[in-house]
Amino acid sequence: MRASSDPIAIVLVDDQELVRTGLRMILESEPGFRVVGEAVNGL
């Protein structure tokens, strides 16, 4: 169980770099979220 003060770790997966970049910018501007990785597909 995670503590309420710990950020939610997120891995972004999309084949378009521009989409990943935009999502990263949005998520990183919000408290409580941390982008820990990115991928171009689910493999």
Name the helix and strand elements from N-terminus to C-terminus, one letter apiece: EHE
Oligomer: single chain
* Main structural class: alpha+beta
The pLDDT mean sits at 92
Number of domains: 1
Low-confidence stretches: none
| Sheet with the most strands, sense and barrel status | 2 strands, parallel
Give an overview in words:
It is a single chain. The chain is an alpha+beta fold and 43 residues long. Helix content is 28%, strand content 30%. The chain has one helix at residues 17-28, and strands at 8-13, 33-39. The chain has a two-stranded parallel sheet with strand order 1-2. The termini are far apart. The model has no long low-confidence stretch (mean pLDDT 92).
Which characteristics define this entry?
43 residues, 2 strands, alpha+beta, two-stranded parallel sheet
Describe the structure concisely.
This protein is an alpha+beta fold. It is 28% helix and 30% strand.
List the helices and strands and how they pair.
Layout: E1 8-13, H1 17-28, E2 33-39
